[in-house]
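Posted in: Structural Biology > Protein-Ligand Complexes

Title: Requesting predicted complex, fe (ii) ion in pocket

I'd be grateful if someone could produce the C-alpha cells for the following input. Sequence and ligand are given below.
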Amino acid sequence: MAPGLTETVTQTTDDVTNGVSKLKLSSEQKPAATTEDKGPSYPFYYPYFDKEEKFPPTELFEHTDVGLRADPKKPHLLAEGVKVKNFSPYIGTELRGVQISQLTKEGLDELALFTAERKLVVFRDQDFKDIGPDRQIEIARHFGPIQRHPTSGNVKGYPEFHVVYRDANHNRFKEYLGGDRANHTSWHSDVSYEKQPPSTTLFFILDQPELGGDTIFASQVEAYNRLSPEFKKRLEGLRAVHSAVPQAEFSRKRDGPVRREPVETEHPIVRQHPVTGEKALYINQGFTKHVVGFKVEESEYLLKFLFDHISKGADFQVRAPYEPGTVVVWDNRVTVHSATPDYANDVRRHAVRLTPQAEVPIPA
Ligand SMILES: [Fe+2]
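-- Reply #1 --
Done. Output follows.
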C-alpha cells in the first residue's frame, strides 16, 4: 500500500473517533468525579451513544446561503467597539466585544458572510455555552439544517450536537495513534461525504487544557490560488469520491452506533463559494478517497500531491487557541482543519460542534 493511502486510512480513524474513542458506549455512563477531578464542567454535553438510534438517509434540500443577503459593511456584527484582529492575510480573525447570542437575524447573516471571507472567526468571551441547547441549535440552524452525525458522541435528546471529549480515562491518541504516528496532524473538512456538506460551523469549548489543544486551519482558497494556471486547468472538472464507509466500519468494530448507512459522494475537486465566488480545493485527507476516472496509481499520486501541498502550506495556515468562553466559527467549504493533541494525557478537553449543511458543491 502506498504511504499516502496508509496515512489516509489512519487519519480517517482519527477523525472518526473525534476524541471519544474507548468511551464506554453505554447510554447513561458519566465519568466518575474524584477528589482531584470534579468531572466535566458541563456534564449535560457528555458524549452519548445509543446503538439503537437510527436516522433515515439524508434527503436533498433547497439551500440559499444567508450570507448572500448580508450587508457587506456588516454593521450588526462589526459594530463600534468590536475589536478585530486578523491572524494572517489569508485566513483567521479574532473578534472581541460582540456576543453571538445577541446577534439579530441581520447580524447572523453578516456572520456567515464574514466567516466566508475570513474562513475562520474566533469569538472571545462568549456566553454561548450557557444559553442552553435549544437556543444554541436555533442559532446554528440560521445557516442551514444541522447535520446529525452518524457515529460520534452526541447529546441525549439532541442529536444535533457533535461532542469532542477526552480526559484521563478516555484518550484516543494513546489507544489508536500512539505507536504508529510521529505526529497527530489530521487535516480534514467535516463530514465532506455528505451530498450537501457543511458551511458555517460553530464549535464551542467547555473544558480546555491550560496550554495546547489548539485547532489549526488552512485556507483551501489560498491552497488553490498557489497552483499554476496549467495545473488549475487540469483540476477543474475533476471529481473525487468522499467516503463515510471507513468511519462507519470503525464505529461498528468498536460496537458503536451507525445511525445512518454510510454514503459515498462525488464532489468537484475545485468548488466555488456561493457568496464570495472564490474557488477552493475541496479534497481532504480524512474523507477523500479517489479521483473519479483515474486509475488507482494516478489517483494516489494526485491526491498525495494535493494533501502534501495543503499540509505544508504554513503560509496559508493559522492556529486557533482556546480561552474559556471561546466559540470558533469556520466555513467548512473553504478550509481544512486539524486538532493538535499536544497536551498531557490526563487533561480534560471537552467541546461541542454544531454543523449546518449547505448547498451541493458548485463546481468551479
Ligand atoms: Fe473536524
